[in-house]
Amino acid sequence: PEQWIKISEACKQRQLFCFFDMAYQGFASGDVNRDAHAVRYFVESGHNICLAQSFAKNMGLYGERVGTFSIICENEEEASRVLSQLKITVRPMISNPPIHGARIAAKILGDPVLRAQWLVDVKGMANRIITMRDQLKELLIRAGSQRNWDHIVNQIGMFCYTGISPEQVDRLIKEFSIYLTRDGRISVAGISSKNIEYLANALHQVTK
């Protein structure tokens, strides 16, 4: 929170317009409200922000690509002008986006029972991701790795930057059939109790 205060002050001093990308709300802390703190703080502090928000991951609607785009405006007149420009921009790009996923998201958020269940599910997924991070670090140490893997548990969210080199990434792909981006980023959500030991041993082999 203290860092966001400083960032907010810096943005005001430089008269910056802030764009928030919220693709994994709830997966950082397990609490969707806590993960929205920065956005809400900026709005409360008087910033006119825009927010790109996705429900593809935290609602399990990845194939639907559902989300929202919100812009904070000064008044209703400005909001009307902004909406008009957005429609002009969107029209040649996607015209009418699919409505199926949007209706599912609206149903979940609009029904108290479904929303409560969704919050439980998000918390469960976040906890599982945190557990996988802890176990991966522990298994790397147990495998005999002398590297510092603290960053695995210090990072948050669905993805983890392992800190390995592009050459080590290539070895993981070619020798162990473990696929990740060349900057060493892996999907923690793709780690399970069935493959985590294999992953830890492979990481150890390419980094020792």
Automatic annotation (TrEMBL):
EC class: transferase
Segments forming domain Aminotransferase class I/classII large: 1-203
InterPro entries referenced in this protein's UniProt entry, alphabetically: Aminotransferase_I/II_large (IPR004839), Asp_trans (IPR000796), NHTrfase_class1_PyrdxlP-BS (IPR004838), PyrdxlP-dep_Trfase (IPR015424), PyrdxlP-dep_Trfase_major (IPR015421), PyrdxlP-dep_Trfase_small (IPR015422)
Coiled coil: none
Pfam families: Aminotran_1_2
Keywords assigned: Aminotransferase, Pyridoxal phosphate, Transferase
Cellular component GO terms held in the UniProt record: mitochondrion
Signal peptide: none
Single GO molecular function: L-aspartate:2-oxoglutarate aminotransferase activity
PROSITE patterns attached to this UniProt entry: AA_TRANSFER_CLASS_1 (PS00105)
GO biological process, one term: L-aspartate catabolic process
Cofactor list: pyridoxal 5'-phosphate
Catalytic activity: L-aspartate + 2-oxoglutarate = oxaloacetate + L-glutamate
Domain of life: Eukaryota
Enzyme Commission designation: 2.6.1.1
Sequence similarity: Belongs to the class-I pyridoxal-phosphate-dependent aminotransferase family.
UniProt subunit comment: Homodimer.
Record's miscellaneous remark: In eukaryotes there are cytoplasmic, mitochondrial and chloroplastic isozymes.
UniProt protein name: Aspartate aminotransferase
